[in-house]
């Protein structure tokens, strides 16, 4: 028999979230679209943690501060959700988030949605980096890659990209 891996291993950022009644369907379980919203809450907290550790010290400004500090921003390009078990109204969940890979203009985010030690969902998101001045896709900022690599327990993979 193989030993189950702890679904929290390798995640530095884990944030709590309580399921609200309005996020559930008539059966009392979380409606499937809300898992992407939960992943987005985790992403926001991840970026807040990066800014708190590596951004301007006077105030963590998630809107303007992130773009000013890193010289860019990101859009979701692709989302993949693996539904394994359902959350219910009033469940206390943990949203575990880490960046797993950097490409030239994109990066991959892994989210584990947990209830206790039970892995409910695995969400994989691909973000593309863009220049807010032009709204055009751009190479991921080297400063962002460096800060994330210093922050993560498991260093993100780097794609081999020919210049």
Write up this protein.
- The chain is an alpha+beta fold and 163 residues long.
- Helix content is 23%, strand content 34%.
- It has three helices and seven strands.
- Strands 1, 2, 3, 4, 5, 6 and 7 form a seven-stranded mixed beta sheet that branches.
- What fraction strand? 25-35%
Instruction: Determine Rg (CA atoms, Å).
Output: 17 Å
Q: How many strands in all?
A: 7
Report the major sheet.
7 strands, mixed
State the distance separating the first and last CA atoms. 46 Å
Roughly what is the average pLDDT, rounded to an integer?
Answer: 91
Spatial shape:
globular
Taken in chain order, the helices and strands follow as EHHEEEEEHE
Helical content stands at 10-25%
The number of distinct helices, counting runs of at least 4 residues, comes to 3
- Give start-end ranges of low-pLDDT stretches: none
Kindly name the structural category: alpha+beta
Name its key features.
163 residues; alpha+beta; seven-stranded mixed beta sheet; 34% strand
């Amino acid at each position: 028999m193989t030993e189950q891996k702890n679904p929290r291993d390798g995640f530095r950022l884990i944030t709590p979230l309580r399921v609200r009644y309005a996020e559930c369907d008539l059966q009392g379980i979380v409606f499937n679209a809300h898992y992407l919203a939960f992943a987005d809450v985790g992403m926001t907290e991840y970026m807040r943690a990066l800014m708190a550790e590596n951004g301007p010290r006077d105030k963590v400004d998630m809107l303007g501060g992130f773009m000013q500090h890193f010289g860019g921003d990101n859009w979701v390009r692709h989302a993949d959700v693996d539904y394994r078990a359902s959350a219910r109204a009033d469940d206390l969940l943990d949203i575990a988030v880490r960046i797993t890979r950097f490409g030239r203009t994109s990066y991959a985010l892994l989210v584990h949605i947990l209830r206790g030690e039970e892995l409910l969902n695995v969400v994989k998101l691909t973000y593309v980096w863009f220049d807010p001045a032009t709204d055009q896709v751009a190479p991921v900022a080297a400063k962002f890659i460096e800060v994330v690599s210093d922050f993560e327990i498991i260093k993100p993979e780097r794609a081999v990209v020919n210049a």
